[in-house]
Write a structure and sequence with these properties.
heterodimer; A: 171 residues; mainly alpha; 6 helices; 80% helix; B: 170 residues; alpha+beta; six-stranded antiparallel beta sheet; 6 strands; 36% helix; globular
C-alpha cells in the first residue's frame, strides 16, 4: 500500500471513511498511516478514533476461559428450564391421571361387585339359572307388594282427606 | 391451567362418589355379618333369563319386566333386634342423586323407596325396609317401569314379606 498520499487523495479517503463508503483496503491504509504516524495532525480525530477502537478491540479479546464460562452458563440455563417447565407439567399430568383412574374405579365398581364380575365369566347350569330366576321373581314381587301396600296407605289417606273436606263443606 | 384441572378433578370425584350406590356401601359394611343374606344378580344373568321358555302369563309378565333390568342386589338381615336402627341408618346413606319416592312408617315396619333418575328414566330403585326383627335393602338397576312392577303382585295376589322365604343365599 502506498503510504504517500496527496492531500486531496487523503482528504477524499478520510471523507469516504467517515461517510462509511471506504473499502476494507482503504480503511487498512488509513489504519497503517495512523500506526506509522504518517497521518497529518489535521486528522487527529481519525487517529484518536482508530486508537480507541484498537484499545477497545484489545479489551474485547476473549481468552480460553470465556468458552468454559459460557458453556457453564448454558448448562445452568438448561437445568433451570427443566425445573421450571417440564417438571410441573409432569406433576399435573400425573395428578390428573391418578384422579381419573380413581374416579374410573369408583364409577365402575358399584355396578359390579366381585361376585358379579366373577359370575360374568361363568356359565350357568339350568338349575342355577332357575334358582336365580326364582330369587329375582321373589325380589320383584316383594318390591311390588310393598309398593302396592304403600300406595294403598296413600289411597286411604286420600279418601280420609276427601271425606274430611266434604264434612267440613256441609257444615 | 392448574385451577381447571382441580375443578375438573373435583367434579369427577363428586360425580363418582354420588354414583356409588347405597346398597354397595351396606354390602361392604355388613360383609362379615353371618346373619346377613346377600344376593347379587348380574346383568349377564338377566340376559340369560331371556332364554327361559315360559308359557304362563305370570312368568311372561315377569320376564318382560326383567328384560330391561341390568342388575339386582339384595341384602336381608333376619332375626335381628335392631332392624329399626339399621333402617334409620340406611335411609341417611343415599346421596343427592337419590330421591325419595315414598315412605311408609307404621307399627310393624318402616319402608322407604328411593329412585335415581338418568335422562328422565328411573335407572335405579332402592327399597329399604326395617321392622322389629328384620332389615331388607334391595336395589334394582336398569330401566325400571314402576307401573309394570306394581302389576306383578296384583296379578299374583301376593302380600307382605312372604316372598322373602324364597330368597336363599347364593
Amino acid at each position: 500500500m502506498n503510504m504517500d498520499y496527496k492531500d486531496d487523495e487523503l482528504k477524499r479517503l478520510v471523507t469516504r471513511f467517515w461517510d462509511g463508503e471506504s473499502t476494507l483496503e482503504e480503511e487498512k491504509a488509513l489504519k497503517d498511516l495512523v500506526a506509522y504516524g504518517n497521518l497529518p495532525e489535521a486528522y487527529d480525530d481519525l487517529a484518536a478514533y482508530f486508537e480507541s477502537m484498537g484499545a477497545l478491540s484489545d479489551e474485547l479479546t476473549l481468552d480460553s476461559s470465556f468458552d468454559d464460562a459460557l458453556l457453564e452458563k448454558i448448562d445452568q440455563s438448561e437445568q433451570t428450564n427443566v425445573r421450571s417447565l417440564v417438571k410441573p407439567r409432569f406433576i399435573w399430568a400425573a395428578a390428573a391421571a391418578v384422579v381419573m383412574a380413581f374416579c374410573f374405579v369408583l364409577f365402575k365398581a358399584p355396578n359390579e361387585t366381585p361376585n358379579m364380575a366373577a359370575s360374568n365369566q361363568e356359565t350357568y347350569s339350568k338349575e342355577e339359572l332357575q334358582a336365580a330366576f326364582e330369587q329375582t321373581q321373589a325380589a320383584l314381587l316383594l318390591i311390588s307388594s310393598k309398593m302396592n301396600n304403600a300406595t294403598t296407605h296413600a289411597d286411604q289417606l286420600n279418601k280420609f282427606h276427601e271425606a274430611t273436606v266434604r264434612v267440613k263443606s256441609r257444615k | 391451567m392448574k385451577k381447571n384441572i382441580l375443578l375438573a378433578a373435583a367434579m369427577m370425584m363428586s360425580f363418582a362418589t354420588f354414583s356409588q350406590d347405597v346398597i354397595e356401601r351396606f354390602f361392604n359394611e355388613l360383609n362379615n355379618d353371618e346373619q346377613v343374606t346377600k344376593v347379587s344378580i348380574s346383568s349377564k344373568m338377566f340376559e340369560l333369563f331371556m332364554h327361559i321358555d315360559s308359557e304362563e302369563a305370570d312368568e311372561k309378565e315377569l320376564l318382560e319386566t326383567v328384560s330391561k333390568l341390568k342388575g339386582m342386589k339384595i341384602l336381608i338381615k333376619d332375626g335381628v333386634t335392631n332392624g329399626e336402627q339399621l333402617y334409620k341408618s340406611a335411609i341417611k346413606k343415599p346421596s343427592a342423586d337419590y330421591e325419595v319416592l315414598m315412605t311408609v312408617e307404621d307399627d310393624v315396619e318402616d319402608l322407604t323407596f328411593f329412585i335415581r333418575e338418568e335422562n328422565g328414566v328411573i335407572a335405579e330403585l332402592v327399597m329399604i325396609a326395617g321392622g322389629k326383627d328384620n332389615f331388607v335393602l334391595l336395589s334394582l338397576i336398569g330401566e325400571i317401569d314402576l307401573n309394570q312392577i306394581s302389576k306383578l303382585s296384583k296379578s299374583m295376589n301376593i302380600e307382605g314379606m312372604d316372598n322373602l322365604e324364597k330368597i336363599e343365599q347364593r
